[in-house]
Design a protein that fits this description.
The protein is mainly β. It is built from one helix and 20 strands. It has one helix at 2-17; strands spanning 30-34, 37-41, 45-47, 49-53, 66-69, 75-77, 82-85, 89-98, 101-110, 116-121, 126-128, 138-142, 155-162, 166-168, 171-173, 179-181, 186-188, 192-199, 206-207, 211-214. Strands 11, 13, 15, 18, 19 and 20 form a six-stranded mixed β-sheet that branches. It has a four-stranded mixed β-sheet with strand order 2-9-8-5, with no helix packed on it. A hairpin with a 6-residue loop joins β18 (192-199) and β19. The model is unreliable at 1-20 (pLDDT under 50).
């Protein structure tokens, strides 16, 4: 009888040590989020991993993890830890919580890949044929959301979008800030309105305001009306030249 009582007591103690049927046997004391810092482009995602840990640093499985963002306007997070870049900003805090314990990561959102060319400085509203524009145009590369993109070494070319003219010095490279400023861009042609298109490979181009192109400076004389083919001495020509 004493042996049975002893065995029963040992079983009760064993159950108590395990926390009872259906109860967690290990306490979560921290949550590790990886990576702890990172960045994501607007419109793209990055996946974070959360690992609940016990007091000895061991991973604790089978716990429910909830995710939250300190600023969903900049970046949102799904219930599986997938962070989506919404607008440029940060760093913001993405938090993972399990059994009342939390861990976090700092995430920044950067502009997406360049998708369009935009004009930051319009070319001169008027121009003289054969003379460099007094106000040279400048363009900025932007992503699909309109954020300025830092991308250097991209070749941007100007072409005639409407009207008629020949262009000189019609290309420029972007600097590290994604800005291309033209130098010596010149239009040559008959008087009239001309608009320019600024484009880079794979990007949506931008079209300038109209430029009123006027005649260039005189470089030679031309005869529009020839003088008479015959004439008399000391007598005005019948057909005066022009």
């Amino acid at each position: 009888m004493r042996t049975r009582i002893g065995l029963l007591a040992a079983a009760v103690l064993a159950i108590g040590a395990c926390g009872g049927p259906g109860e967690p046997t290990i306490t979560v004391t921290s949550v590790d989020v990886s990576p702890s810092t990172g960045s994501v482009k607007v419109g793209l995602t990055i996946t974070l991993t959360a690992t609940p840990k016990d007091q000895n640093g061991g991973a604790v499985a089978g716990r429910t993890i909830t995710w939250s963002s300190s600023n969903p306007v900049v970046a949102s997070v799904s219930n599986t830890g997938v962070v989506s870049g919404v607008t440029v900003g940060g760093p913001i805090t993405i938090t993972a919580t399990a059994d009342g314990q939390s861990g976090s990561a700092q995430i920044s959102v950067t502009p997406g890949d360049p998708s369009q060319v935009t004009i930051t400085t319009q070319p001169s509203a008027t121009a003289q044929s054969g003379a460099a524009l007094a106000q040279q145009p400048a363009v900025q590369l932007r992503d699909a959301a309109g954020n300025a993109v830092n991308a250097g070494g991209i070749n941007v070319t100007a072409s005639v979008a409407s009207g008629s003219a020949t262009l000189l010095n019609a290309s420029a490279l972007t600097n590290l800030n994604g800005v291309a400023t033209f130098t010596g861009l010149t239009l040559t042609g008959a008087a009239g309105n001309v608009s320019l298109s600024f484009a880079a490979t794979g990007l949506t181009p931008a079209v300038s305001n109209a430029i009123a192109l006027t005649a260039g400076s005189a470089t030679k004389l031309s005869i529009t009306t020839q003088p008479s083919t015959t004439g008399q001495v000391a007598t005005p020509l019948a057909q005066q030249p022009a």
